[in-house]
């Protein structure tokens, strides 16, 4: 599956949620997420701009590989994701394969969906709690992302193609 998304930084979630509800968006997720990003000792996954992530989303556990695809205006990844039954056992399997945890984060996510467009509000806990709450908009293409961003009061310039590492670096004290 191709993942196409942007981040809108420092959002007023309550205000944006009200606009989303007016558009007919439905809340589809409201829970905590724990994610661990893995790489080999030589950093070959990250050096190729790819990502291997194990994530607990509420009661579901998923592992995903995201392959970098270059794009100027939005973040694009070819994503392969499967649900697994046990977070800790999957972590052990990855360790046996020579993969090491490189980054771990926890956040609260609230997600809305309308017309196939996903809006996700994220607020990090603990180590990265200094990052202000932000929103991701994910859709089938950049045109749709910009169309819906404008419908809820944002400009194209507000839509940033940032990954998690770039976001953390932007706000690092």
Descriptive notes:
By secondary structure, this protein is of the alpha+beta class. It has one domain: Hypothetical Protein Pfu-838710-001. It contains five helices and nine strands; from the N terminus they run βαβαβββαβββαβα. It has helices at 13-22, 44-47, 87-96, 142-151, 164-171; strands spanning 2-8, 26-39, 51-57, 60-69, 75-84, 100-114, 117-124, 134-138, 159-160. It is globular and about 50 Å long. It starts with a strand and ends with a helix.
Distinctive features:
173 residues; alpha+beta
For the record, what is the CATH homologous superfamily label? Hypothetical Protein Pfu-838710-001
Mean pLDDT: 94
Task: Note the main sheet.
Answer: 8 strands, antiparallel, barrel
Tell me the number of helical segments per DSSP (H or I, 4 or more residues long).
Answer: 5
Give the fraction of residues assigned to helices: 10-25%
Look up the CATH topology. Answer: Hypothetical Protein Pfu-838710-001
> What gross morphology would you assign?
globular
Q: For the record, give the distance between the C-alpha atoms at the N and C termini, rounded to a whole number.
A: 35 Å
* Strands, total number: 9
The count of domains is 1
CATH architecture term:
Beta Barrel
